[in-house]
Design goal:
This protein has seven helices and three strands, in the order E-E-E-H-H-H-H-H-H-H. By secondary structure, the protein is mainly α. Strand 1 and strand 2 form a beta hairpin. The N and C termini lie close together (about 10 Å). The structure holds zinc ion (ZN).
Length: about 180
């Protein structure tokens, strides 16, 4: 087990041996650090520090933006720009369920790593909203596969995309509130 010190000013956690004269995050002198009482195994600390889930959720977020912002201009702008936007929109829509599934799985792994179980109030709520997000991305893909970017289907895809965006906003906000959470052990 490594001993950690915590910056009293900004909450940055540093390994005792690796800390220099100042806090690398806020720049205040080393004297603002205090011992950090939680004992966390090397392996869990290092895995949590890689932030697979917060990094992994960027892909579905980017694809979701593509699915909300591209189809309408794609339909109304003249060729070739409009057609190119629709190709980008198509790939955003079709890849989104896979990206969402990967993000969901990294979320399960990350949640278990930090809290040692998935049945906590916030994780349960995140899993419900995450499952709704995943289901919405599948429905959006199915609408596209059935009707393409048609007159009605384009608006349905964008509307469902906005609902998925509301889910993503909730997931991001609750996730950020737990960014530094980890149980000892
Ligand atoms: Zn600091």
């Amino acid at each position: 087990m490594t001993n950690y010190l915590r910056c009293r000013a900004c909450d940055f956690l540093a390994e005792e041996g690796a800390l220099g004269d100042v806090c690398p995050a806020c720049g205040l002198p080393r004297t603002v650090f205090e011992p950090y009482p939680k004992q966390i195994s090397e392996r869990r600390r290092s895995l949590a520090g890689r932030h697979f889930h917060p990094i992994g959720v960027h892909l579905p977020q980017v694809l979701l933006l593509g699915c909300i912002l591209l189809p309408i201009p794609g339909r109304f702008l003249p060729a070739p720009l409009g057609a190119e936007l629709l190709v980008l929109a198509k790939w955003s829509v079709l890849l989104m369920p896979f990206a969402a599934l990967l993000a969901f799985i990294t979320g399960l792994v990350d949640g278990r790593l930090r809290f040692k179980k998935l049945e906590t109030p916030l994780l349960r709520s995140k899993m419900r909203v995450g499952a709704a997000f995943l289901a919405l991305t599948v429905v959006i893909s199915v609408v596209y596969l059935v009707a393409g970017f048609g007159t009605a289907s384009t608006w349905i895809i964008v509307a469902l995309g906005l609902v998925a965006g509301r889910c993503a906003f909730y997931l991001g906000r609750t996730g950020a509130s737990m960014f530094n959470c980890i149980l000892p052990g």
